[in-house]
Amino acid sequence: MTEKPARVRFAPSPTGYLHIGSARSALFNWLYARHTGGQFIVRIEDTDRKRYVEDALDDFLTQLRWLGLDWDEGPEVGGDYGPYFQSQRLDLYRKWADWLVDNGFAYRCYCTPERLQAVREEQRQRKEKTGYDRHCRYLTGQQRAQYEAEGRSYVIRLAVPLEGTTTFQDAIRGEISFNHAEFQDTVLLKSDGWPTYHLAAVVDDHLMDITHIMRSDEWLNSVPIGVLLYQAFGWQPPVWAHLPVILNPNGKGKMSKRQVIGKDGTVVPVHMRDYQAAGYLPDAMFNFLAHVGWSLDDSTEVFSREDAIDAFAIDGIKPSPAAFPADKLAWIDGVYIRERDDDDLYLELLPFVAQGLDMSEQEVDSRPELRQAVPLIKERMRTLVEAAPMVAFLFEDGEPDYPDPQLLVPKKTSRSETIDILEKTSASLAALPEFDSDSVEAALRELPGELELKPRQVFSAIRVAVTGTNVSPPLFESITILGRERTLLRLAAAKQAVTALTEDG
User: Between the N and C ends of the chain, which has fewer C-beta atoms within 10 Å?
Assistant: First the structure.
């Protein structure tokens, strides 16, 4: 470890649920903090009261915990630099906004909304760029005193230099310059006393000793305002590193915050809570997100948290945006599922299987079927929600129903041959002294020769009869888990369904 301990922050605004892009930003900040032995701070920028979503904060914290991104300071943890909610720091913003006014770096603007609208309309008619005309920047002392005496409400605006440029160094993109002519006199403090992002972020980042700011490059254009504020205050600015945006899976346009369509036409989730609900493992999601815009090396796609922490570096982040590789996530998740210990995977599967089967977790846990099936299905799953359909037949008691009996008859197999398969299977399994997978397999392997049929025909009929589907976990082990009594009951029901089908034919 060569870098000095960094203090980085993830500062979401609770105006919506945690987006995949924001989660990637949080993860990169967390990795850098852990790589340098520094601190990862969570700060809630809840100044946008109009768009505030009541349960968004809980969603942020829940999803960060799910990803394993523990924070050293912030909500529910505390710390020496709090409070960590901007809504609880309003006096600080007022203090520093007034300081800027008193020292000539900002001014009070008394323009009414009606005047601002009229100015914009005139600019449009003249086909000029719309924006504030700096009217109050040039008020005389007498005019200001008069407006104050009248009790006019005001905002505080930054007095952006009228000429020249602001230049700063971005750790990912290099040196960047902006002409001051491109900027308006930005509002720093609104008339209701609430700050805008520009003022609040700079004050908080300085007072919280933030050393590096890693955030999406959609904030790149706001950096000059930050630089001017740091210069005005005489504070040391942090290191800026603007992360590339994540593009839609088709590579066209920034990934939406609402709905994204994948290459195959399916809807791709954009919020972390949807991936958790869809049954992705948090370790797989961590691995996947870390690989969007950064890589461990030139070839490794599956890596541990520890490997990522050891290797992470800001200069390893790619500056170019990349398409969201949605199809790769399922593959990575499948790798992690296969590597899971069976007992651990069972506990992770339990709530998903219970929900999928409309049972309680206690009901599923009280039965042996899922625990026994885990080794059979883990090789076939890509997400945890896929388990319930695979094991549903194991939890069905009583006589099964075959909505389409024709499925019981394999291709290139007659109905009478199918009945022979079912009868012979029942007799073989009923006669077994021990009902274990080896005995079941040995008995059923003899049937194709005895019936003079291909194995595919025989085992297809048995599989549908026993599981109700053409696709299931390994047949012999499934029969063993199901047990002799239920297996024989299903074979008899299947024979009856095929017999009725024959009679109708």
Answer: C
Q: Are 93 and 53 in contact (CB under 8 A)?
A: no
Query: What predicted TM-score, i.e. pTM, was given to this entire model?
Result: 0.91
Q: Tell me what the mean pLDDT of segment 146-163 comes to.
A: 96
Average pLDDT estimate for 110-135: 93
Active site residue 190: no
Q: Which of 257, 263, 378, 412 is catalytic?
A: 257
Buried b (16+ CB within 10 A) or exposed e, 19-35: bbbbbbbbbbbbbbbbb
What's residue 307's pLDDT? 96
How far is residue 322's CA from residue 251's CA, in Å, rounded to a whole number? 7
Contact assessment for residue 61 and residue 69, using Cβ atoms and an 8 Å cutoff: no
CA distance 289 to 326: 11
Query: pLDDT at residue 320 above 50?
Result: yes
Task: Evaluate the omega torsion of the peptide bond into residue 195 and state whether it is cis, within 30 degrees of 0.
Answer: no
Q: Provide the b/e sequence for 406-432 (b: ≥16 CB within 10 Å).
A: ebbbbeebebebbbbbbebbbebbeee
Rg (CA), the chain: 32
Nearest Cα to Cα of residue 72 among 5, 155, 154, 168: 5
SS (H, E, C) 278-337: CCCCHHHHHHHHHCCCCCCCCCCCCCCHHHHHHHCCHHHCCCCCEECCHHHHHHHHHHHH
The rounded distance, in Å, linking the Cα atoms of 227 and 233 is 10
Question: What is the Cβ-side half-sphere exposure of residue 261, based on CA atoms within 13 angstroms?
Answer: 3
Chain segment 447-465, per-residue pLDDT in tens? 999 999 999 999 999 999 9
Alpha carbon separation from 68 to 63, 77, 110, 287, 324 (Å, rounded): 9, 15, 48, 11, 22
Tokens of 232: 């005005």
